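To illustrate the input format used throughout this study, we show a single complete record. The first block contains the structure-token representation of the backbone; no residue identities are included at this stage. The design step must infer an amino acid for every position from geometry alone.
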């Protein structure tokens, strides 16, 4: 069994006009998502979000607007990923953040973690992601940006 903490962040990377960056998982082709990752040690959730952004996309959160959406999701960990966690862990607590960029830009994906990237309007991005909590977060974007 693994040692991964069942506490993670989800970071929706977006523009002011509601475009969303999705990245495809290397271990599950066809699984598109926003940036995600588990907390390491006792780091703050904000620091987890910053680290994951840098690791997965090479984006420096200090150069953009990173916001805590004050949204917490608890969900059952997919069985095919439970081996990453300590024995008996079946649920994860996920905290949602947003990173706003001025415009869509290509990112540097982490080798071995993600294989492709694409920018989509929020509606299409919400339909494409495999995770229900990721889809819900993306669907909140228009109200967060004042687009509705």
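Output of the design step:
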């Amino acid at each position: 069994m693994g040692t991964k903490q069942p506490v993670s962040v989800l970071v929706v990377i977006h523009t002011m006009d509601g475009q969303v960056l999705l990245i495809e998982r290397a271990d599950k082709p066809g699984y598109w998502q926003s940036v995600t990752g588990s907390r390491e040690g006792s780091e703050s959730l904000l620091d987890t979000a910053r680290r994951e952004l840098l690791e997965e996309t090479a984006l420096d959160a200090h150069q953009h607007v990173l916001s805590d959406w004050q949204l917490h999701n608890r969900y059952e960990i997919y069985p095919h990923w439970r081996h990453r966690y300590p024995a008996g862990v079946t649920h994860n607590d996920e905290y949602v953040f947003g990173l706003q960029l001025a415009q869509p830009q290509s990112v540097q994906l982490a080798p071995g973690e993600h294989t492709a990237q694409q920018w989509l309007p929020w509606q299409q991005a919400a339909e494409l992601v495999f995770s229900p909590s990721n889809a819900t977060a993306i669907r909140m974007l228009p109200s967060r940006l004042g687009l509705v």
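Structural context for interpreting the output: The longest strand covers residues 65-76. The first helix runs from residue 45 to 57.
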